[in-house]
Amino acid sequence: MLKGKTALVTGSTSGIGLGIAKALAKEGANIVMNGFGDIEGSQAEVAALGVKVAYHGADMSKPAEIEAMMAFAAAQFGQVDILVNNAGIQHVARIENFPVERWDAIIAINLSSAFHATRLALPAMQAADNGKGWGRIINVASIHGLVGSAEKSAYVAAKHGVVGLTKVTALENATTGVTCNAICPGWVLTPLVQKQVDAKALAQGISMAEATKQLLGEKEPSLQFTTPEELGALAVFFCSPAGVNVRGVAWNMDGGWTAQ
Ligand code: NAD
Description:
Elements: E1 6-9, H1 15-26, E2 30-33, H2 39-47, E3 53-55, H3 63-77, E4 82-85, H4 100-127, E5 135-140, H5 153-172, E6 178-185, H6 191-204, H7 208-219, H8 228-239, E7 250-253
Parallel strand pairs: 1-2, 1-4, 2-3, 4-5, 5-6, 6-7
The structure holds nicotinamide-adenine-dinucleotide.
């Protein structure tokens, strides 16, 4: 379905971003990857799906590096048709104890990077398909873009901001073939969440299994993690012809978290 298209997925070296990159690659899209950690291993996983893969190591907290990444993607594949703003970090502390540099980093990586990548991707998307426009911008927000949780001030503020940015991007392009939507996962067992499970186990002197059960039990009635594969399937739907009039939604996959 996406043969000939190019998708740029920020923070795609692990977790949700890697899951979405693989789902889009399975549909034939060439992939521009980004992120830190296991760069070679993650690239190999996507390349094994038979598509072209490129990598750019932009630090998403730095606007100049985001500009370089977008120029690199255009030089590699002509243009970015699908932009997935996914890179994100977390820090957990009460507001009065929240390190100022962690606040700044979370706002830069989880919110401002989506603005920068979007503003740079839009002109080519708007010009595509003989000026009618074709593009898909998918912002990986979070259930914390819709509700709050204690000790996550920067993350919750950034993710609510991402949901707002999603709506405005969708509205400004509503008469074109460029859509923008947000995905709002509940708990997904990725390195980002594993750190929170580890901290809980350590703080309470309980096993990992017990800490995981508590984590899910506090928020998710389904008592199940959402998987990167499930989130990848939702991203593919947004890119499909059936997704053309889905504009500005914040779609939760949260095991019932926000239904309560
Ligand atoms: P993860 O830690 O597995 O992945 C984060 C990715 O972002 C990695 O590729 C990492 O290298 C990259 N990254 C971090 N800082 C970066 C920077 N400065 N520049 C470039 N890349 C950077 O975590 P994940 O859980 O897959 O998170 C992906 C997104 O999903 C985040 O935006 C997160 O907020 C969101 N999310 C996660 C959950 C969850 O339960 N795991 C739930 C809701 C939303």
